[in-house]
Amino acid sequence: xxxxxxxxxxxxxxxxxxxxxxxxxxxxxxxxxxxxxxxxxxxxxxxxxxxxxxxxxxxxxxxxxxxxxxxxxxxxxxxxxxxxxxxxxxxxxxxxxxxxxxxxxxxxxxxxxxxxxxxxxxxxxxxxxxxxxxxxxxxxxxxxxxxxxxxxxxxxxxxxxxxxxxxxxxxxxxxxxxxxxxxxxxxxxxxxxxxxxxxxxxxxxxxxxxxxxxxxxxxxxxxxxxxxxxxxxxxxxxxxxxxxxxxxxxxxxxxxxxxxxxxxxxxxxxxxxxxxxxxxxxxxxxxxxxxxxxxxxxxxxx
Length: 302
Known about the structure:
Elements: E1 4-7, H1 11-23, E2 28-31, H2 34-43, E3 48-52, H3 60-70, E4 76-80, H4 85-94, E5 98-101, H5 106-119, H6 123-126, E6 148-160, E7 164-169, E8 176-183, E9 190-193, E10 199-201, H7 210-216, E11 226-228, E12 231-233, H8 237-245, E13 251-255, H9 267-276, E14 278-290
Helix pairs in contact: 8-9
């Protein structure tokens, strides 16, 4: 195969990434800045580019824009230690395959590289996100099994037709934030993903303090927060409602701590999903039928 090219101005990062990739059997070429990259691309084709945003001279975003114009089929994974969701959104809009925050989780990086290289092999796979660490375990109710009945629905699972992005303001924090929604494979469900690649399933068992609520029968919150491995995504409730209303079963949502929501409604999300469109998948939906009342924690008598 053609080399993977690592573009970073820090020698230690170049050498460490090259060593990891070579151990995995990938040929690697390293570049410290834009000119070295352009010269390398003239000498031979590349399989993939790992591109840092902050580079001397021409920065990573400018390089990405040039690569999209000159070699639109070349997958690019952006890296940064000082950016955020706004930079991630901008990179995806410009055509980056994915975006990772430093310090990099090497297992996440390797999975994304594998997915990105696989996606270049067919147009069908190209719409799928490059992350292969999405959990695909079937849903298992964590409550009384008699209260929930699983049934085959007879309808196909559904995912997004394309990647879409939304910028906005966090309703609780007031800071600028954003989300990137991507198609996901069958049986993956709704998955939130932090900028460093940690996946948080959109399930009741991912609720922050869920185990405490189960044992102590107390649960209070002014927004719905999902948590895993000390990562959190807040105010997911309106987005989850919009996904449900759209009939979407499998979606990957890259987010930075909080879902943007200015007016407290699902309207912006509904418009975003309409823009993306939907695609039926080759797997059947299993529906959870609620047979009796379920509750977590204490109910407000009012």
